[in-house]
Structure formats: structure tokens, C-alpha cells
Design brief:
81 residues, four-stranded mixed β-sheet, 6 strands
């Protein structure tokens, strides 16, 4: 059974397109834990009216060069059927 994605009410994507740094700010602790455990967490995209953007961005976790935990975003196509 496929779990429904979690839609963040606090997360805000920062950076887009060719910007060097693309990250998600203001994720709650529960949302961060969900990303780290492999659940799908989405943030609403404020620039979704752009032709190459989607309504939601999927949050992913990565380690920065200094070893700190960070969260980035990628396009996500929400299929509601």
C-alpha cells in the first residue's frame, strides 16, 4: 500500500532554477524526521506559475560539506486519482 505524501504547512522552498543553493527552510521536527525515515514530504511551490515548475516540491535530505544535515527540494508531480 502506498502512503499518502505529507504536505508541509511550515516548509518554504528557497532557491530555484540555476541558483547555486536550493534548500527548504522552516521544516518542523516531525517533517524532518519523516524525510529522514523515507516518507514523501512536499512543500508548496510559491513560483508554481512558472512553466517548468510544479505545484509541489519534494523534500530530500543531504549532508553538507561540513557534515551538517540539510534539506533540499525537487519538482514533484502530484497524481491524484
Amino acid at each position: 500500500m502506498i502512503k499518502k505524501p505529507i504536505i508541509s504547512v511550515t516548509g518554504i522552498p528557497r532557491g530555484k532554477g540555476s541558483d547555486r543553493f536550493k534548500y527548504v527552510a522552516f521544516l518542523s521536527t516531525a517533517e524532518k524526521e519523516a524525510v529522514l525515515s523515507g516518507d514523501t514530504v512536499l512543500v508548496r511551490c510559491p513560483w508554481s506559475n512558472h512553466c517548468m515548475a510544479t505545484t509541489y516540491k519534494r523534500v530530500y535530505a543531504y549532508r553538507a560539506g561540513d557534515g551538517s544535515q540539510r534539506f533540499g527540494h525537487r519538482n514533484y508531480q502530484l497524481n491524484e486519482s
